[in-house]
Design brief:
mainly alpha
Length: 135
């Protein structure tokens, strides 16, 4: 199982547990907040970037949803998986769901935290950002 598959599996568990731990009442916002914490846990090697990405995903995609009660949508799951792939240098097709605005924000997040990021991780992230034309 790849890290992205494990991450997705844990997202599914978080969604399931939200319903189970709340008397069968699902709350999309609460589940997405758990997904944000999960994202930050998975990416604890770059805590500042992970926090900024999870907040960006939550505020930009989840809170702007027309059906917040049923989040995360498949499209928003694809976004958080793409962000996870980016942080973990898994430059697969999953990155194709990210928009030009997403890439510009990722660039800003990485630039802001550059001094705290391991050099190899920083080079990998900046290389992908450059490849996507966000510099």
């Amino acid at each position: 199982m790849t890290t992205i598959e494990k991450f997705y599996s844990d997202i599914q568990k978080a969604i399931k547990y939200d319903r189970a731990n709340n008397g069968g009442h699902y709350d999309g916002r609460r589940a997405c907040e758990s997904i944000c914490k999960l994202f930050e846990t998975y990416n604890r090697d770059v805590p500042g970037v992970a926090r900024q990405i999870s907040e960006y995903w939550f505020n930009t995609y989840v809170l702007e949803s027309e059906d917040l009660a049923n989040e995360p949508s498949e499209a928003n799951l694809d976004k958080i998986k793409a962000f996870h792939s980016f942080v973990n240098n898994d430059v697969s097709e999953t990155l194709d769901v990210l928009t030009a605005d997403d890439w510009e924000n990722l660039r800003d997040f990485v630039n802001f935290e550059a001094e705290t990021i391991d050099l190899n991780a920083l080079q990998n992230m900046m290389s992908v950002i450059l490849e996507k034309g966000a510099l």
